[in-house]
Design brief:
The chain is 65% helix and 5% strand. The chain is mainly alpha-helical and 220 residues long.
């Protein structure tokens, strides 16, 4: 099932465009620190957009590319036993792993735009983009693993956690409003009580004056 057109626009308009802003693959930058920093910042922007996306929309309904079905099919055909909830960097970066990933990635040259651009990938899908939980990966590798995580339910924890926090905020906000309203009601009740006390005191005073007047008349 696909997400709404609005979600598709978000993906194509932000998720893709941020990655497209990278003018060259990461390995082409050499050791220029300024260029590497600019590239890393853009990659981080891409990561932030994606994380917000899976936090606000149920990941199983997301469509990251026009060829998600093909990516997922090819991925699971070639990497049947690869654990994707918590990735082992060796399964992505070792020489033997690279040899296995290379033909998979090249299949999407010309199919997925900028398929080999550098992208940030989370190791543990239940956590965010922290320094310890992030590695660089080609864009098609990011799509393969994240499409699989979304379809197989591994990214659900991020969405559920975000929604629980939103609900908790709503409940706390309601409590604060209720407490404020209750305080005003209490103040109103106190004011009414004071009015009633004043009224009764006035009536007693009148009664006392009448009694005093009667006593005075009797004495005369």
């Amino acid at each position: 099932m696909e997400a709404s057109s609005g979600i598709d626009e978000l993906v194509s308009g932000e998720l893709v465009s941020v990655a497209h802003a990278l003018s060259l693959p990461a390995e082409s930058y050499g050791n220029d620190p300024d260029i590497e920093m600019a590239w890393a910042m853009r990659a981080m922007q891409h990561a932030e957009v994606y994380y917000k996306l899976i936090s606000s929309v149920d990941p199983q309904f997301l469509k990251l590319t026009k060829v998600d079905d093909q990516i997922y099919s090819e991925f699971r055909e070639n990497f049947k036993k690869l654990r994707i909830d918590v990735l082992d960097p060796e399964e992505l970066k070792s020489e033997s792993a690279k040899e296995k990933w290379r033909p998979f990635c090249l299949k999407f040259d010309g199919i997925v735009e900028d398929f080999n651009y550098g992208t940030l990938l989370r190791l543990n899908c239940s956590q965010g983009y922290t320094e310890e939980n992030t590695i660089f990966a080609p864009r098609i590798q990011f799509f393969a693993i994240e499409v699989a995580r979304n379809r197989e339910g591994y990214n659900k924890a991020i969405y559920t956690s975000a929604q629980d926090k939103e609900e908790e905020k709503g409940v706390n906000s309601g409590r604060d409003k209720g407490a404020s309203s209750g305080g005003e009601e209490e103040k109103g009740a106190n004011r009414e009580g004071e009015k009633e006390k004043t009224k009764k005191a006035g009536e007693k005073e009148k009664e006392a004056c009448k009694e005093m007047n009667k006593s005075g008349e009797a004495a005369v």
